[in-house]
Amino acid sequence: MIRIFARRPFVFVALFLCLGVYVMVNCLEKDVILFYVITLFIFVVFVVLTILITAVFDKSRFVNVFIKFLAINKLIILFCFIMYVLGGLLAYNKINYYTTNIDEETYEITAIVDSSEEYYSSKKLYLKNVTIIFDGKEEKLKGITCLTFYENENELSNIEVGDKINFVGNLTSNYPIKNGELDYYSIRDNIRYEAQYISDLEIVENNLLGASDIIHKKVLDTLISQMPIDIAYLSYSILFGDSSYLSDFTNESFKISGVAHIVAVSGMNVVIIVSLLLFIFRFIKIRKLIKFIIINLVLIGYCYLCAFTPSVVRATIMALIVLSARFIGKQGDILSSLGLSCIIICIIWPLSIYDVGFLLSFTSVIGIVFFGNAINNFLHKNCKFPNFLSSSIAMTVSAQIGIYPIMATYFNSFSLYSIPANIVIVPIFSLGYILLFATIVLSLVFPFLAFTLFLPSVVLSFVNWFPSIFVNLPYANLYVSELNLLSFVYYVFITFISQFILIKDKIKLPINIILIITLLTLFIIDILPKKYRNTDAIVFDNSISTVLLTSKENDKILVGVGGKYDTNKLTENIQRARIYSLDAVFIINSNVDMYIQRTNLEALQKVCDIKNIYVEENSKYAFETLKNGAVTIIPNNDIIKINNLNIYPLFVNEVLVAMLFVIDNIEYAFIFDVNMAQAYQLQNMLKNSVNILCYDNEDYLYFNGYPKIIEK
Length: 712
Description:
Layout: H1 2-7, H2 9-28, H3 33-56, H4 61-98, E1 106-118, E2 122-134, E3 137-140, E4 144-150, E5 164-173, E6 177-178, E7 181-182, H5 184-188, E8 191-205, H6 211-226, H7 229-240, H8 248-257, H9 267-281, H10 288-305, H11 310-327, H12 334-348, H13 356-382, H14 387-410, E9 413-415, H15 418-445, H16 454-465, E10 477-479, H17 486-497, H18 505-527, E11 536-540, E12 546-550, E13 556-559, H19 567-576, E14 581-582, E15 584-587, H20 594-607, E16 609-610, E17 612-615, E18 630-633, E19 640-642, E20 645-652, E21 655-663, E22 666-671, H21 676-685, E23 691-694, H22 699-703, E24 708-709
Parallel strand pairs: 4-8, 13-15, 14-16, 15-17, 17-18, 22-23, 23-24
Antiparallel strand pairs: 1-2, 1-5, 2-3, 2-4, 5-8, 6-7, 9-10, 11-12, 12-13, 19-20, 20-21, 21-22
Helix pairs in contact: 2-3, 2-4, 2-12, 3-4, 6-7, 7-16, 9-11, 9-15, 10-11, 11-12, 11-13, 12-13, 13-14, 14-15, 14-17, 15-16, 17-18, 19-20
């Protein structure tokens, strides 16, 4: 233990820095003073334990070891404590710097479109260099402003990235902590305001692109001109880690097969770039220092083009540390390099610990460091696997061990076929990436060589196709329960069973047994069915909203089953909520094809027992042949009773426009794509106390905030 702490101080310093950030963010939700109280408590506990151990085991061998441990590492312990406090202060400053306030008024707004995103029924524009005018006064806003508009606002649909626009709209501040949780991705993207378009749109100038945007556009245009469109989008995603251009099917097939990491720029990409540059330098006689500087500049430039995402920054810092060690003739240490890169990233951007990419990047390396060599040696020496095969399996398995808690917590999925998929994909992807990187650079410098892009196109066509064969295989995407508190126990466990805990087996074995029992016990408790003892409406984040209603009596009703691409999201949400039985499901969205809804319902029935299914009369024939569940027509002007709940279908001129759920004396109304006339009649039918959940954002206009709206 003394040896570990003394030899790898960066790892422990990094952990305390991250702990300080985490504690401060959680304290900010209540009171910042709580952070200093917890800090004082940790310090006092450490001192008290030290005194007690010294008093109880005086002159014993154990206390001598403990005192020796403190003597050797006193500076590291002090530095860990300092970094813990620093992490808290950095997090506090970052969140305070991000927090802004603005009067919620109507402004004339001028801005440049920085980026855009398209959704099911809306589009978001992210605006930079925002200037507002109110009462003749002009003011420049910091950060990014998010402008959301819907499909009916056609005048905004032709706006492109780089356009300078002027319009009249409302502005509100985007607060960093919402509903007691940190809105990390808004802070990461510096989105400080939200805008609502009102009128008078004008495009002032076009193509005001930054250097990064110009390069991205040039690369994408070149790829599209020389490759099939789907391969061009895949190539762009591989180069810059931007998967927004990939189709839903491609994204899903990559996720299910466990190869989604190839479109997240990380260590593999950086290693390939460095290896390619070192290979080229073998034929060019220049000084070692010049080579080192060139590699640094290339990697930093690549980070800039990839928007300095945590995964590529981590990989770049680790690569530069290893190269620096080689340059001065020292042996590098992967764990120390990992710890140092974590420290650098968290000092620059302390909230990185809330970034999924950051967590996956670091935990995958931890898994590889802990278990990669052991698994490789076992397969190669004991099982006589060829070295290339054993190393591929070892890399995949050890990385999966490292990232398992993160995948379970954030995605609730585990890829059963990741090992065979990665064994095939990784070497072919590496070849494709080398060819792609080399040919795209040549094509940008010498446009007449753009035809060479057909080489990576052929290789990447296989990379694009191969994951799709796993999609329909049985148990392709296993649901796993999120670990929450179990994650800490899990990482302690894998640390103790790894080769980096240098204690005797007779001590190590009982500790591992205790950790295994604790892990299994907490896991069993975690997967037990959840008891809903509060009246609540849980809105699932699907392209077409689905809502779960629960009551104090533990009744569970699902309203809607989503759209075409919501099958996996729906089942994951139900499993994440640990629901194994639903009292009723209402199929009520006429905008979605009934057979698509049937497909979603059949997928849901595989993971959850459904007692009653309610459909509209004109769509019953699509659900009659379902194997499980009683299908009932939603009645006109009649009450539906489920357990102790009363449900009232609301019809306007024989058209079902809403349903009213009365749960524990609380009324929830669900509106189905109404027009203005239907909305007017519906308002007369409803009371002011009703909470309305709309499926279509356009319906908000008709109700004008009456009654209260719970948004999707």
